[in-house]
Batch of 2 targets.
Target 1
Amino acid sequence: MNNDIAKVLLDETQIAAVVDGIAEKINKDYKNEELVVVGILKGSIMFLADMFRRLEVSCSLDFMAASSYGSSAVSSGKVTIEKDLSSDIKGKHVLVVEDILDTGNTLSYIKDYLKEKEPLSVKICTLFDKPSRRQKPINPDYVGRTIPDLFIVGYGLDYNEKYRNLSYIGVLKPEIYS
Ligand code: IMP
Ligand code: MG
């Protein structure tokens, strides 16, 4: 493990346990339902791939990409959709899968946007939640871990597009981004 850049927060075994727990809840809640899982690119990919394989409900997969971050560790607050859905979600249950819910700007924009497409329901599943930094009144329906105001990387999460490939999740050392 590359401990020079990040201090381990969750190792691979711990991540698997968190993902299992979330999938179990989703399987219970959507039993006998049809679900459209919408992964938010790119940060959710590892979490999504592992979680999706544990789903036992009837489900399809779609993706969206949005940006609010630019290239720094501070949210710009302005959200743009860079990739839209390729399927029709009208009358369907939608589960949005995100890596981390921070200010809430991205997910509240995406949730409002999806609701205009008249789905049956829209729920939010996030691997991490940083509620202390919230700027928009949005709460996740499924959360892996709630964390304080730390900047984390690995398992899909990036800093300036780097470190997504780490197999663990680590707290980025402040000297790297300050
Ligand atoms: P929000 O719009 O402020 O809630 O930001 C959500 C997005 O910011 C996430 O999808 C991440 O891409 C990014 N983000 C927020 N906190 C972190 C972090 O600690 N590590 C890596 N990316 C983060
Ligand atoms: Mg992201």
Note: The CA atoms of residues 13 and 168 lie 9 Å apart.
Target 2
Amino acid sequence: MVQKKDIDWGSLGFSYVVTDKRYVANYRNGAWDEGGLISDDKVVMSEDAGVLQYSQSVFEGLKAYTTADGHIVCFRPDLNAERMYNSALRLEMPPYPKDKFVEAVKQVIAGNEAWVPPYGSGATLYIRPYMFGISPVIGVKPAEDYQFRIFVTPVGPYFKGGARPIDIKVSDFDRAAPRGTGNIKAGLNYAMSLHAIVLAHKEGFAENIYLDPATRTKIEETGGANTIFVDADGNLVIPKSDSILPSITRRSIHYVAEHYLGLKVDEREVYLDEVHNFREMGLCGTAAVICPVRAINDHGKEIVFEDNNHGVMGPVLQKLYDTLTGIQMGTVEAPEGWICQID
Ligand code: PLP
Ligand code: COI
């Protein structure tokens, strides 16, 4: 056991801390090199790198946990590997091999063992794989060379106040075009959301809920998380759309709801004008875990989720949260293949 860093784990927010090691691999002359851990946290590249000019970059996010019995694990890294593979193809980048991705995740966690927050601290280790065009491009075309990296940073809750229900607003901006890039994890999807999130924060909201750009009648997702709803019968309703990110947390919640909690799950298009019928709404993602929504503000009209309206998350979200985090931290038995042990 390494000596853990002297950090007040419980007071961490969701921010960046430079840790000891990062993983780097380079794609040159049409092939990925071996890759490995390095200590230097700086990236040096051409002023004309593809990522700097035409935003050719994709990324991922997953977490490592210390389990109740003291092991370090991460959650479904194979799904991050696959999603990043698909993201890269969409941006004409050479995908990083999926088995090497999982291997690299394991190496970078092991190399930063002292930074993995202890069990029960409320913090986790956030892992950020990313990849970008590093060689010069001036005509609009893909770069020739790429870099794949992973850094890690210990984090606390994504939203201030932990699991307290948040208020979100219907954004007047669109997040993704109908046949655009909403279903991949590309930096460009977040660049365009920055103006909208700054406005939302100024108005006192924690996040934006984006509607489908074609009709602006259906729920898509927030800037950094998918959404789930609980209907009047206590069952789960999950918005379906081709232009939202296929969240690994949301897909895991779907399985947990059906197979652990015996809930009915309806994955379908969800209209903004029906959500007043729901009792609970949650945001779900690696960073957000499950964050309850108290109300959606639609241009001054509040749609309140009654079971999240008393300062804590509603009962169904709470059960999903407890089961999912129990699986991640080793107190609830995991489905085959969900937990990847590091040590
Ligand atoms: N949607 C968006 C836009 C995100 O950025 C994220 C974060 O990764 C998610 C959803 C949640 O995905 P996951 O559960 O795989 O972290
Ligand atoms: C994640 O949940 O991993 C994300 O990438 C969300 C991000 C906006 C912090």
Note: The chain has two domains: 9-155, 166-327.
